[in-house]
Amino acid sequence: MKQQGFSLIELMVAVAIVGILVVIAVPSYQDHVRSANRAAAQADLMALAAAMEQHKSVNYSYAGAAEGGGDTGTLLYLRDIHRLRKMLPIKCTT
Asked: Structural domain of residue 46, as residue ranges?
């Protein structure tokens, strides 16, 4: 008689191999995602800093830079503050 399918031992070996691959791959993937998010956060903060400096060069002061918000990056900051808090290793207090 011809055997069809897999034995329990073969399935358990396959599951063990997949488990080992997952244990190795998941931390590497998480590190990659964390570094990509950190780079995005740094780019956002640099854009905010550039917009604030542009406001200062026009108005000779930072006062009022956050008011109006359209070209100072404030809206970007308010929208992404929660995402930035998750990505940066420091604690933000507001």
From this structure: 9-87
